[in-house]
């Protein structure tokens, strides 16, 4: 049993998807599946029930997960104990913010060469918790949160991308309206997983009599690309920076599907010069 296998195991538990866990760990899906299978053989227990539409943890997984997290936490503590002391800032985000964040991190390091700035990949809820608990100094999120002790600073606003397959009836149009789209099924993840996205859609369609026509939710282990290929009459919305490989994108005439991107930090964190420099870099387009 290796620590990296435990890290992959925790990622699959939290994502409930081998493909998303692989993306989060920067390895291929086949590689993470292979390592989980090795871990199952080493432990002599099945950790996940795999179906075509879901990844379901077993009872053994529920017992192993807290111990795996403890092991990984100890590894982090060991590395921190021998690391050269100096200013250290941890920025929690996801991969869609990587390009802009790395540019801001490079600028902050140039201004504060003594600083160590880490870019930590975490799901939405864990990002906010990490800031509140002091594990991270700031987090990037879409939307906002209200939590005692935390401050929210809006950084920029991004347009959502309208995506369709090449076989869609609107494929020949460069620009569409919400009324044009209302006749076709909209595919999104379940609302409980993307509350903000569903709220933005419903708000935008408030003045469209027909409203959006919702198709079946995108399963957790499926991609928008595959669902649109299977449903060429459907459409979806993607966050800026999401992969659109294999899809066509349409410009929305009203420019009404917009969403704020914010930094979440503890109320006293703005006093840190490195954090302030990092925020300044994130503000810049």
From TrEMBL:
Keywords: Activator, DNA-binding, Transcription, Transcription regulation. The keyword Cytoplasm does not apply. Residues 1-58 form the HTH lysR-type domain. Belongs to the LysR transcriptional regulatory family. This is LysR substrate-binding domain-containing protein.
